[in-house]
Amino acid sequence: MQATDELHVQSVTGVDLQLRIASLGGRSYAFVIDWHIRTVAAMAWYTASTSVLYQEFAVSQPDATFWFVVAAPAAVIYALYHLILEVATGRTPGKRIAGVRIVTVDGQVPGIAALAIRNVLRLLDSLLLYAVGLTCVLVTRQSVRIGDIAAGTLLVYDDSNADTEGFNERAVARLGLERAELAHELLGRWKSLEPEKRQTLARKLLDDDTARSDAALHDALKELVR
Amino acid sequence: MNSPRDRRTSAWVAQRSDDWRDLESNLAEVEDTGRIEGRTALRAVHRYPEVARDLALARRLSPDGTLARRLERIYARLHRSLYRPATNLRADLTTLFRREIPEIAHELRHRIVVVAAGFAIASAAGWWMVDTYPGLVGLFASTEAVERVQGGELWTDGLLNVMPSSVLSAEIFTNNILVSLTVFCLGAVYGLGTIYIIGMNGFMIGAVFAFTARHDLAGRLAEFIVAHGFVELSIIFIAGAAGFSLGEAIARPAHRTRTAAFRRAATRGARLMFVCCLFLVGAGLIEGYVSPNPAFPLPVRLAIGIAYWVVLLLALGAFGPLRTTSDQRGSKKRVRGVHQE
Question: Global pTM?
Fold first, then answer.
């Protein structure tokens, strides 16, 4: 099935919202980070608590204290990591780092029930070392796992400001909208372009034919736009 | 920048920029704190169509341009903040227990009976098999348990000497919750996973009872189970029924699409399982503190088992009038209206 890139959310204003749907790569990246965090956190708890309480890692005679102070919190950290963090903060650190967030199919913030359902159904997605979930993400149009289908949620890329940062009305006043946007894009991609090409473009935008160095052109453009 | 269009665009951007910046800072505050003052919220509501109009204009002037992308982000954040669902845990729980759970349990009642019947058939099959071929009990019980039964005692005897009640309870309810959720989730595989787990559990219980009966210990095993068994078994049946509804939603979605039917079954089943998990914690405590303790005589165990089971049935709305949702009430009124006309 052909994957859809964007989620179009209808609004009462008549202007649709377009959210980029996170693909297998974005989802997997977030999951791998989260898996490492929860594994390390659970192991850290186990190690710290056993060394403080028993002065040994392999407890030979586990008592009630071991189960309730050592084993249960470590198991809770590992098993309920996603649910607790998603309910409390909206997303896990892995999703934050990967730049993805959970939304409902209507583009809204999911409620506790939806978050709980997608995490309960993780039991099914995690079968065969997550092969079930991965296959489902690969074959569904919105790249969702079974838990997401059940909860009516999906992952979208976060609205980072990185590529529009520094763009302001002064640049538009000086250059006009199209040229200001071109100049902003050029500055953003300056390092990835070949020197001759970026210099030619910069000179055109600056209306300046004088022989200036690459760095000077970059600074002049930056001064003009930002 | 000489064209009139450029000048108009520039004037528009200059006029609106302060508003966008202000809005971005307000949104950052709301996202950081999760709170919004009434006045700010109202202002955001008024700004929503304004930003939509700005975005539409920016998309027309420069589709996929930097300004359009910036406004899309502001618009998306504003949409998310305005449409964030209100959380009222107390009201949600009241609705869940008073209306939704009885309604869902009522809807699943036939499936619960079918699952219970399937479990009974599997138990009978397990009983017959071990009663006929006693050597096969090794498939269902550990060697140590078999030897203890052959020696005239149950594997549950002296359980509290091995493990304190608190640990036993926690271990039992964690395991039972996991099993119930697995029974529910595996229903998504056209109900096959649910059939397998329910069948195997029924088979195992029948087999173990048959084996203990051969050594005159079945009565004592029933005495051990009676305090927690009613609720635990009922919840396994409910989980099976909820699991079947998942499978049925995929196999026979009726007038809904498969996705919509699956989503509905999962949402309703998960709500029911949430309540069941709460009861499993109680059943685990009974199994840890009451069942292995010989100080509790059979009548007390029976009273505890039945009383807790009645509480479960009350929570499922078995004894009360079914409260229908507003949707159903609306449709009934409409149907009555049609008849009257």
Answer: 0.84
Q: With respect to residue B36, please indicate whether it lies within any of the assigned structural domains.
A: yes
Contacts of A103 in chain B (CB under 8 A): 80
Which of A19, A109, A117 has its CB closest to that of B85?
A109
Domain assignments of chain A as residue spans, ordered by start:
6-157, 169-220
Q: Does B273 touch chain A (CB under 8 A)?
A: yes
Scanning B55-114 for CB atoms below 8 A from A yields 55-56, 61-62, 65-67, 69-70, 72-73, 75-77, 79-80, 83-85, 87, 92
DSSP state of B135: G
CB-count burial class (<10 Å; 0-12, 13-18, 19+) for B179:
middle
Q: What is the pLDDT of residues B150-209, one digit of tens each?
A: 998 888 887 777 788 888 899 999 999 999 999 999 999 999 999 999 999 999 999 999
Mean pLDDT of A70-91: 93
Please choose, from the candidates B338, B324, B340, B330, the residue with its C-alpha nearest in 3D space to the C-alpha of residue B95. Answer: B324
Tally of domains within chain B: 2
Contact status, residue A21 vs residue A154, Cβ threshold 8 Å:
yes
Whether B318 and B276 share a structural domain:
yes
What pLDDT is recorded for position B10? 86
Which residues of A are less than 8 Å from B85 in CB distance? 108-109, 111
CA B296 to each of CA B286, B291, B301, B304: distance values in angstroms, whole numbers, following the listed order: 11, 8, 6, 10
Q: What is the mean pLDDT of chain A?
A: 88
The answer to whether B279 contacts chain A (CB < 8 Å) is no
Percent of chain B with pLDDT over 70: 93
Task: Please check whether residue B325 touches A, CB under 8 A.
Answer: no
The letter for the amino acid at B96 is L
Q: pLDDT per residue over A89-130, tens digit each?
A: 889 999 999 999 999 998 888 989 999 999 999 999 999 999
User: Is the interface score ipTM higher than 0.95?
Assistant: no
**Residue B13 belongs to some domain of the structure:** no
